[in-house]
Design goal:
heterodimer, A: about 325 residues, mainly alpha, about 75% helix, B: about 325 residues, 11 helices, BPD_transp_1_N (chain A), cell membrane (chain A), transport (chain A), transmembrane helix (chain A)
Chain lengths: ~325, ~325
């Protein structure tokens, strides 16, 4: 039974990945206009055009192009940037660490805030903490990240001059400057995720705390923090993971905005530069990598369920 | 089923939303939260009227009317370059909300921006609703091959992080209100599609559908006359929530410079431009920011209220 389920998951994963690559390819293949306009000089001869098509893999019929693109992509070759001639894979690998760091730190920060607040709100629903949290959540949820980012810059960087306005200081230049350049982007990204986690945890907690095993834990004389954080939190890990899968998609989109806002050298700014330069091979490469990573991460989330909840293993 | 047949499937109208009906005591819950997680504090909010949704509805009506009739208001045109640059709000009777770096009236630009932002978001929501409902009805009623195609296509759309898909859909094409609305509509469609499909499946075996079938009604007629009216209410109850996310998405694209091209004003574009002079005149960000916030907040509140009214079993 177990193997059959795994096989079914794998088949679904492969089909989604195949569809994602076809879609990515077609989305950027069907762009109207001359895709070589940014590469070829004014009044280029047909020979020059043919050579450029050859170089960027734009010759041949649509299916031919797709399979050669996919074939190279599977070997880690996404072609060369039409602007800088740098291999797309290299550009992506160079920018990826910044984006990954932003996303990871944001999720961690969101969890760090959401777990105590969400658990306590669920422990005393309708109490002061709960009401303040609910109010702040509904406000935060309505402030899009680009607006929140600008507001944070205004308060902490422009008015208080406590943090740098924009820019990226790599870790090699010292831990403190590195963290200072990260604070505002990470807080901006984490805000929406925190709200999602708090709401989820609070509602989960209200339900879980009515279960018999909580009563029995209380009867055994365990302390309230222990019951809340050890016993009651465990079932919520399940739904928290599901939501984290969705968060990832939002975070990846969010990094595009945050990186642009704070001029950070991540994938997000790379994709925007690629778009403004009409470097569509680079856009195609980034979209493919990001979408595949997103699908795989979500599959990983699905695979983690059985580890957290024994009931899933048997069913 | 939370709503029976004799309950009129009236389309929710924002104006008369909250005053008449007390809230059913359910707090907003994320669409993705599993149903088991929805437990509310007992009693406390049960009888309270939803003030947030009421004021939200008022703001939405105001902003929609203002956006529609902005040309009739005694305001300077949004692209008229004046000689008062970067004027803070409430200092000049002619420019109540001040002017931007080029001396253009901020209120006029914010209202014209509302026009574009709201037109794109409403258009996109309609596109999403029509595509999604049609796909959901067909997949939920005929199942089999339709269901497979449905599953594959919604999963593909959802496999992309939303903003990345939007970038791939619209960024390299001619950015216009129509392209944006279609792109955003495609991204929003799976939400409606899943609700429509789940509800269609729930209704497909009900007595009145079987009765219609036995009387020889065609599938089209059954879908249109028997199932659609029942599916529509839960679908519509999600419309404002989806609209809120689409307003944000449109703003994000405009902020990145991928929305409707300048000089047409849009809230996202105004915030991006105002960022440059955050030190001299923060109002350039705050004015469009407040418009943006109020609109998204209102859509969320009205949306939560509407979903609460319809009941969660029928809205997946």
């Amino acid at each position: 039974m177990m193997y059959r389920a795994v096989a079914r998951h794998a088949a679904k994963l492969v089909s989604v990945l195949a569809l994602v690559s076809v879609t990515t390819f077609l989305l950027l293949e069907t762009i109207p206009g001359d895709r070589l306009a940014s590469v070829l000089p004014e009044g280029a001869t047909p020979e020059m055009r043919a050579a450029a098509e050859e170089r960027f893999g734009l010759n041949g019929s649509l299916p031919e192009r797709f399979f050669s693109w996919l074939g190279s992509a599977l070997q880690g070759d996404l072609g060369r940037s039409m602007q800088s001639q740098v291999p797309v894979t290299d550009s992506i690998l160079e920018r990826l660490p910044v984006t990954l760091e932003l996303a990871t730190l944001s999720i961690l920060l969101a969890l760090l805030i959401a777990i105590p607040v969400g658990v306590y709100s669920g422990y005393r629903p309708g109490g002061l903490v709960d009401r303040i949290a609910t109010f702040l959540c509904s406000i935060t949820l309505s402030i899009p990240s680009f607006l929140l980012g600008v507001l944070l810059v205004f308060v902490f960087a422009v008015t208080l001059s406590a943090l740098p306005v924009t820019g990226w200081t790599p870790l090699s230049e010292g831990l403190v400057p590195h963290i200072r350049s990260l604070v505002l982007p990470v807080v901006t990204l984490a805000a929406v995720e925190t709200v999602g986690f708090i709401r989820l945890l609070r509602n989960d907690m209200v339900a879980t705390l009515q279960q018999d095993f909580v009563l029995s834990a209380r009867a055994r004389g365990l302390s309230t923090p222990r019951i809340l954080l050890v016993h009651a939190l465990r079932p919520s890990a399940f739904s928290l993971l599901t939501v984290m899968g969705v968060s990832l998609g939002r975070l990846i989109g969010g990094t595009v905005i945050v990186e642009t806002l704070f001029s950070l050298p991540g994938l997000g700014t790379l994709v925007i530069t690629a778009i403004t330069g009409r470097d569509f091979l680079l856009v195609q490469g980034i979209v493919l990598v990001v979408a595949v990573a997103y699908v795989l991460l979500n599959a990983l989330v699905d695979l983690t369920y059985p580890l957290l909840d024994p009931r899933v293993r048997t069913s | 089923m939370s709503h029976s047949l004799d309950k009129p499937a009236s389309v929710v109208s924002e104006e008369r939303l909250p005053i008449l009906d007390p809230q059913d005591g359910s707090a907003p819950v994320d669409e993705l939260t599993p149903p088991s997680a929805e437990v509310e504090p007992a009693g406390r909010r049960r009888r309270r009227r939803d003030v947030g949704a009421f004021f939200g509805g008022c703001w939405l009506v105001t902003i929609v009317l203002a956006a529609l009739f902005v040309d009739l208001l005694p305001l300077p045109a949004p692209d008229v370059v004046g000689n008062l640059y970067s004027l803070p709000p409430f200092q000049n009777a002619e420019h109540i909300l001040g002017t931007d770096q080029l001396g253009r009236d901020q209120l006029s630009r914010a209202l014209h921006g509302a026009r574009i932002s709201l037109a794109v978001a409403i258009g996109a929501t309609l596109v999403a609703m029509v595509i999604g409902t049609a796909a959901g009805l067909i997949a939920g009623y005929f199942r089999r091959a339709f269901d497979v195609v449905f599953d594959l296509s919604t999963n593909t759309i959802l496999a992309f992080p939303p903003l990345i898909l939007l970038i791939a859909l619209v960024a390299l094409r001619e950015p216009s209100a129509v392209t944006l609305a279609i792109g955003l509509g495609v991204v929003g469609a799976p939400t409606f599609a899943r609700i429509a499909r789940a509800n269609t499946i729930a209704y497909a075996d009900r007595e009145f559908v079987i009765a219609a079938k036995s009387m020889g009604s065609s599938s089209t007629r059954i879908l249109r006359r028997e199932i659609l009216p029942n599916v529509l209410l839960p679908v519509v109850s999600f419309a404002t929530v989806v609209a809120a996310t689409l307003v944000v998405a449109e703003g994000s694209l405009s902020f990145l410079g991928l929305g409707v091209p300048p000089p047409a004003p849009s809230w996202g574009g105004m915030i991006a431009a105002g960022r440059e002079s955050l030190y001299e005149n923060p109002a350039l960000v705050l004015v469009p920011g407040v418009f943006f916030f109020l609109t998204v907040f209102s859509l969320n509140r009205v949306g939560d209220w509407a979903r609460g009214r319809v009941g969660r079993e029928s809205s997946l």
